[in-house]
Design a protein that fits this description.
- The protein has one domain.
- The protein is mostly helical and about 150 residues long.
- It starts with about 20 loop residues before the first helix and ends with a helix.
- The radius of gyration is 57 Å and the shape is rod-shaped.
- The longest helix has about 110 residues.
- Keywords: Coiled coil.
Length: about 150
């Protein structure tokens, strides 16, 4: 701690420590004297502390970078989820708008399919009848030929 010494011998006109009067400041300046003894610096401890602090700063910067990336990814995820909801709603709206037409087309398809099956059945019946008639025609022709010879 600094100590101040008064310039007057015997201390008759001495001022209290820490206080300087204009007359004493101009005539005898007070010069503080301090004996400093600095402890020796442990350089290895100082270097290890500096390394630890450097490591902490690097980790803090990495953490801030990761936090920034994380918030960016969260925003992107929320945007994608919003886009998915919008697209799903668009699909639902499209389905709701197309449902009557799809039902109409399905009824027409079912009707056409049934008509086709009916036509196939009728065709099979006609082909069977034609085959019977052709057989009958061949039999008649054979009978004509036989009666024509007789």
């Amino acid at each position: 701690m600094p100590t101040s010494r008064s310039a007057s011998p015997g201390g008759a006109d001495a001022t209290p420590p820490g206080r300087v009067t204009p007359s004493s400041a101009s005539t005898n300046p007070v010069v503080p004297t301090v004996d400093l003894s600095l402890p020796e610096v442990d350089r290895s401890a100082l270097q290890s502390t500096l390394d630890i602090l450097t490591s902490l700063v690097e980790r803090l910067e990495a953490h801030e970078s990761l936090a920034s990336d994380h918030s960016h990814l969260q925003r992107a995820y929320r945007d994608q989820q919003r886009r998915i909801r919008d697209l799903e709603q668009e699909v639902r709206d499209g389905y709701a708008a197309a449902a009557p037409f799809v039902a109409f087309c399905q009824r027409r398809y079912d009707t056409a399919r049934q008509e086709r099956e009916d036509a196939r059945t009728a065709l099979a019946d006609c082909q069977e009848a034609l085959a019977d008639r052709l057989d009958n025609a061949h039999e008649l022709e054979d009978l004509r030929v036989r009666f024509a010879r007789a």
